[in-house]
Specification:
With 167 residues, the chain is of the alpha+beta class. It contains three helices and seven strands; from the N terminus they run αβββββββαα. It has a single domain, classed as Roll (SH3 type barrels), CATH 2.30.30.220.
Length: 167
């Protein structure tokens, strides 16, 4: 008979401690092929998720997976992460919680994810870019600026933003 992992029990215990203490439980997850998370929020192969009662619905912390629904940018998403991919659970307010050692097979998957993410970043860097273009109205305004530093510009109000409408 194989030995049961203590990790899912510890995750549930820290989650319960956070909620009983009025803290917001967060988990840090190493994203791998089994993870169903919004990839646009993944940074360096990891994602941090708020798993509080108010941020999730149908939270199930099972022995193998943590499953729940959450809203990202107003869109409901189904989230699923493997328990062995969780690298930390902690209270957002004070940082107290528990971190876990990465497992050997997960470290290999992590290096593969990192190389895939780096190649995706490179393709984004080499793709089309946005650049600012000077507007003719700004050029003519800059040419008409007075050289007298003592006299304040009447069109600018100090400390107040100005919206310029260009037709």
């Amino acid at each position: 008979m194989s030995e049961l992992s203590t990790k899912p029990y510890l995750l549930r215990a820290i989650y319960e401690w956070c909620t009983d203490s009025g803290y917001t439980p967060y988990i840090a997850v190493r994203v791998d092929a089994r993870s169903r998370v919004p990839m646009e929020f993944v940074r360096n192969g990891e994602i941090v998720l708020n798993i509080s009662f108010g941020a999730t619905s149908n939270l199930k912390m099972e022995s193998d997976f943590i499953n729940f629904s959450a809203r990202f940018g107003g869109v409901s998403r189904q989230i699923s992460v493997a328990v062995e991919s969780v690298i930390a659970i902690y209270a957002h307010e004070n940082g107290q919680g528990m971190a876990f050692e990465p497992q050997a097979d997960q470290a290999t998957a992590s290096s593969q994810n990192d190389s895939a993410e780096k190649s995706a970043i490179e393709s984004i860097k080499n793709g089309p870019m946005l650049a600012s273009v000077p507007v003719a109205a700004e050029k003519s305004r800059d040419a008409s600026v007075k050289n007298d530093p003592e006299e304040p510009d009447p069109t600018k109000t100090p400390g107040k933003p100005v919206l310029t409408r260009i037709k």
